[in-house]
Amino acid sequence: MQLRVLVFAGTTEGREITEFLASNKIAVTACVATEYGRMVMPFNEGVEIRTGRLSQEQMEELLKDYSFVVDATHPYAEAVTKNIKAACLNSGMEYIRLLRPSINTGNVVTVEDTRAAAEFLNTVEGNVLLTTGSKELDAFTAVGDFQKRLYARVLPAPEVVDKCVKLGYKGKNLICMQGPFSHDMNLAMLKQIDARFMVTKDTGTAGGYEEKISAARAAGVTVILIERPSGPQGLTLEQLKPYLAQKTGIKLHE
């Protein structure tokens, strides 16, 4: 079978590792969950893009056509990572996890999950900038007066906007923009909404975490950090490239 690599992408690192393989003439397929994920994938003739969410069973069927798999999904995509790992195990295929290094900034309010973040917000007053994406926004509808206090920053994709509006986030409380966001942009946004709190995740350097933290400090805003779920060990982008080069015969330039 021809050497073929399947990358579960949807992140900056996923796009970069896909480009790395394709630019070295390795047949690669990138799996993304949404049309928006397809849209932001750089064009490369050597890359096949599959769009849509897959069950574990569908993943196992797909793996039959590939030599190995790279899980480059988001650090907080716990359910997807669990399915990819299980599919690899059942298929007898090596599971390769691309890890985004965590950043320890200290001086933040740490909570276990979005539900705990919502519970904390019910104990305090003031406006809140939510920078956790749209996937778990429903948990924050448990916050009292959420339609006035909470400002959700989400991707400008039609299906995302529709979901947010149905949940009750709309008008000036729905900020639809694509990152990455600079320190100045984050700071301006926090000041614009008169925020006292910002809810975020440890998305690492690629996810703009440091810029969010620095802006919050400059604005005197308290950061509520949702902890990363515990997950499998893996390799950083810098470690993964030489590892894949060894497996595929790619010659790296010194």
TrEMBL record:
Organism: Ruminiclostridium cellobioparum subsp. termitidis CT1112
Keywords noted in UniProt: Cobalamin biosynthesis, Oxidoreductase
Protein name: Precorrin-6x reductase
Pfam families the record matches: CbiJ
Molecular function terms from GO: precorrin-6A reductase activity
Record EC number: 1.3.1.54
Residue intervals passing through the bilayer: none
PANTHER family: COBALT-PRECORRIN-6A REDUCTASE (PTHR36925)
PROSITE patterns linked to this entry: COBK_CBIJ
Coiled coil: none
Pathways involved: Cofactor biosynthesis; adenosylcobalamin biosynthesis
One record GO biological process: cobalamin biosynthetic process
